[in-house]
Amino acid sequence: MRRLMIAGNWKMNKTVAEGVDLVRKLSYATNNITSLDILVCPTFTALKSVSEAIKGTNIKLGAQNMFWEESGAYTGEISPLMIKDVGCEYVIIGHSERREYFGETEETVNKKLKSALSYSLKPILCIGEKLAERESGATERVLETQIVGALDGFSAVEMEQIIIAYEPIWAIGTGKTATPEIADSTQKFIRDKIASIFNSQLANKIRILYGGSVKPENAKDLLSCENIDGALVGGASLDADKFAKIIEAGL
Ligand code: 13P
Prior knowledge:
With 251 residues, this protein is of the alpha/beta class. It has a single domain, classed as TIM Barrel, CATH 3.20.20.70. 45% of the residues lie in helices and 15% in strands. An eight-stranded parallel beta barrel has the order 1-2-3-4-5-6-7-8, surrounded by six helices. It is globular, with a radius of gyration of 17 Å. Bound molecules: 1,3-dihydroxyacetonephosphate. 1,3-dihydroxyacetonephosphate is lined by residues 9, 95, 167, 172-173, 211-214, 232-236.
């Protein structure tokens, strides 16, 4: 049985004070929940304060991105050592917004994954197709390219540490959620791909989250699908009540 994870990707939202206020409300609303993993991924500037605010709670901390080097002349970048230093256990890698606006490629995603693992950070690898790709029947080819590219050179032991988030780009921030049937069958395809690259025992252990307009109203139907092991939530994770309702839908 795979343990569910409900993760909030705050994207470029929340000042430090707003972020601390959000996790305080969230921990109050969810403090007796231990049967699933609750994760928040604030902006870099809020990580340290949020890390302090969630001490002693069941909320875990992740970053939204990182560079692959530990230190050096890389103006504007943040290293795996630095996010670990402020208490991150997880890191989102290869979000579609990073790929689209900041030029991330399969190669940079692969380097970041490798680096994260070498610092014992648990990466959440994001993959997903664009609307035109879904409509032209290219979804499986696109996902396969992303999976094979991202996981190039990984052993089964390394793969076991990685969480995958399937985020169809047409469903992100659009209010258009993939139906539970589409999400589940696509996530089954991803799991089968992991089985063919590694082995089926490992594929059965890997957590695959769904992301794309997850809301309190649709969370239960999505989270009850066999191949959906949690949610990566954007907009609705910025509101403590809404995010708590999504978490409760996973109980
Ligand atoms: P929304 O929930 O706002 O659609 O964002 C999803 C997402 O991109 C999470 O990483």
